[in-house]
Write a sequence for this structure.
């Protein structure tokens, strides 16, 4: 939860969003936004907005359950970033996570993929909030 305890939108208008960094065999899991969704067709770390009273970890567990039909183990934060998009301020927290089973496509996503560090989507192919998290993941993998 953000420091004001106000859920996804703070008094100053900032929206707090979490995303899952799920790695397998040196590749990163990304989901593709479904047609009709904002930024349709863009790849993203799965996750979403934190609701009132939720911690970032609980919000991410809920979002992954709702969007991908998985239970997740949430661990360390990878990176936190702030972005102004379409006149709104977003704070994005990327948390490392592991799925208990293979994800199932729901209404929010049209597909999934596992991406090696040199094949990560960028530009218009990537959801706007996710670029700092993907770059942090790429740097961490390069150090391994």
């Amino acid at each position: 939860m953000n420091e004001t305890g106000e859920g996804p939108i703070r008094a100053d208008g900032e929206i707090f969003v979490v995303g899952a960094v799920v790695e397998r065999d040196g590749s990163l899991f990304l989901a593709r936004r479904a047609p009709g969704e904002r930024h349709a067709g863009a790849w993203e770390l799965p996750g979403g907005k934190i609701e009132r009273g939720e911690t970032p970890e609980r919000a991410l567990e809920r979002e992954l359950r709702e969007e991908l039909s998985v239970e997740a183990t949430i661990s360390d934060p990878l990176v936190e970033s702030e972005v102004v998009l379409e006149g709104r301020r977003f704070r994005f927290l990327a948390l490392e996570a592991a799925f208990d089973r293979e994800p199932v496509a729901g209404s929010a996503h049209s597909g999934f993929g596992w991406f090696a560090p040199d094949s990560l989507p960028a530009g218009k192919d990537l959801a706007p909030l996710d670029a700092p998290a993907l770059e942090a993941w790429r740097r961490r993998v390069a150090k391994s």
